[in-house]
Amino acid sequence: MGDSIGDTGSSMHGVSTDKTGKYDLPVDLEDRATVFKLFSFAKPHMRTFHLSWISFSTCFVSTFAAAPLVPIIRENLNLTKQDVGNAGVASVSGSIFSRLVMGAVCDLLGPRYGCAFLVMLSAPTVFSMSFVSGAAGFITVRFMIGFCLATFVSCQYWMSTMFTSKIIGLVNGTAAGWGNMGGGITQLLMPVVYEIIRRCGATAFTAWRIAFFVPGWLHIIMGILVLTLGQDLPGGNRNAVEKKGKVVQDKLGKIMWCAVSNYRTWIFVLLYGYSMGVELSTDNVIAEYFFDRFHLKLHTAGIIAASFGMANFFARPAGGYASDLAAKYFGMRGRLWALWIIQTAGGLFCVWLGRANTLVTAVVAMILFSLGAQAACGATFAIVPFVSRRALGIISGLTGAGGNFGSGLTQLIFFSTSRFTTEQGLTWMGVMIVACTLPVTLCHFPQWGSMFLPPSTVTTEQYYVSEWSEEEKEKNMHLGSLAFAKDAESEGGRRAQSTIIV
Amino acid sequence: MIQFSHGATKQRLFSDLEKGALDVTAKPSRQGVLDAGIDKLSITWKLSSTAKKQANFTTINVNLCYAPVSQVDRPWRRTENELFKDKTCPHKIITRAYNKSSQSFKYTLDRDILTGTYFVHTYAVDAKDYEVAFGQSTNEAKTTNLFSVQAISGRHKSLDIASVCFSVFSVLALLVFFVNGKRKAKLEQSK
């Protein structure tokens, strides 16, 4: 991501100089919207937002579609607990790789094609559930379907071409949160679809296979909508936009090194593995857990499990907003504290969920856990854009991949073996969340400080410009970082705000 | 000493029941793995000579139960001592009023029976519908006289064909749009 960078690090192969077309929303110099009008579908900005989050959500629906139907599928395919657990790990592992690749794809083809390609090419994987007859097939198909979770990257990338960086936190948080909601929607949708098909006369073992056609059709519909209604940039599609003005070509190798050598990148990769990661793991195990432990009907277990994923609707944006609020008074230090508090609280509620013995306490604990984990996701991506300006795309991709890695790891350790019962697994997962959130205390920004240390004398400008070498600065490749640094000075908290030159 | 089952439904335990009160046999209609919905079992049961509680027997429930090998790594099929929690026996075969003489039943395996290894188990219940005693077609360790069943797969040719059709449509539609888009861009650039 970011082979050629414009002012804000998003890949722009030329900016439209056609100012005759008026936009529905006020825009900045790059035609990116400066306000976020939620209920509008006007092109290009809000329409892109809606196309983007709905396609991302569709991918969540299909990736986790198997989860609420596991009690039926496990009998049809004669699965053991290990098989079910391994399929869950497989469902989140594919996108570790695909999220890393998607950044480059967005750069080469644009986010519109990136999204459409992924969504339409993964439709066959969803339909192939009808062929599955054993554990190996089930695990393979879930692995292949999971690739489509890379739409996270195209979604965030697309938002950054359409919305200005001051509101990008809220926009990205809302788009990602509403996308993640798909993990909750599927827990409601699939049991209902299954029930309808059964009532129409199909046997149980055929009905669940037919049910998978619904997410498959959603993939096709969203792919076509994205191709017909979407556009890469505010000025038009990448193909059609003229290449005007200077285009700064950055080297992929340099950006990769920039991302990988910054220790903060890895702190957030780990942290996201224990906020987003545990959310994905829970999406996979929660319906079966309520079905088995509290002897509920499939339909009821699905509703409860759905409320876990649906909390994303406001929890993730709220986390981003809480971070913004903390930054207003305490700067980056406030953001770091907010993240630590929210994510640790989520971990403690997860422990409580594992230990809850009655249905009511379990549901309450689950809801509080979901709020903590999802708000933590929003709060993480409120900090990630500040880790580096030059390598924002790759760091976002790495962090996103880290989420999936964390999910695969927790499912492998706690939910795929006979060593732990599911309730024990949840308890230990909660403990692991608390432990793996501690490294955020080590994240130090020299210009703003960290949770326990004050800032040193390095300025914001120095931090971001230090990513460029002298010869690169001579070529003026660092101008984008300078502009960003100016914007970012508000992260110094209240005392820094007076130094902003408007 | 065998105790009577308690009044409270939640505390009725398997270990309280009289063992081996009924002699049960289950003979598959053919050798090898049986097919659900097709093959049959010949089941017989009669009062065992060692039974003591037969005065309380009102009804006999005959069930199909998982052998231990089908319960391994599948905690949702666990055998529990508390009867209401026990998940060993997923299928009811038949229920008959208790009769002193030998009873038999020819059972065609239900279509929705799952793949696994099974034995036949009977509960003798009293007038209050509480289990009093049991008998099974296998030994106490559940290792003898077991039979295997293969479930229906749920797959259908029509489903497979529909699946392929939609998949092909998706890929083709994408290609059409992509090629079209490239063509339009070439036209615009040449203008």
Automatic annotation (TrEMBL), chain A:
One of its GO terms (molecular function) is nitrate transmembrane transporter activity. The chain crosses the membrane at residues 51-73, 113-132, 138-158, 170-190, 210-231, 294-315, 336-354, 360-384, 391-414, 426-445. It is found in: Membrane. Keywords: Membrane, Nitrate assimilation, Transmembrane, Transmembrane helix. SUPFAM superfamilies: MFS general substrate transporter. One of its GO terms (cellular component) is membrane. It is a multi-pass membrane protein. Gene3D superfamilies: MFS general substrate transporter like domains. One of its GO terms (biological process) is nitrate assimilation. The keyword Lyase does not apply. InterPro entries: MFS, MFS_trans_sf, NO3_transporter. Its main location: membrane. Pfam families: MFS_1. CDD domains: MFS_NRT2_like. It comes from the Eukaryota. Belongs to the major facilitator superfamily. Nitrate/nitrite porter (TC 2.A.1.8) family. This is Major facilitator superfamily (MFS) profile domain-containing protein. It comes from Brassica oleracea var. oleracea.
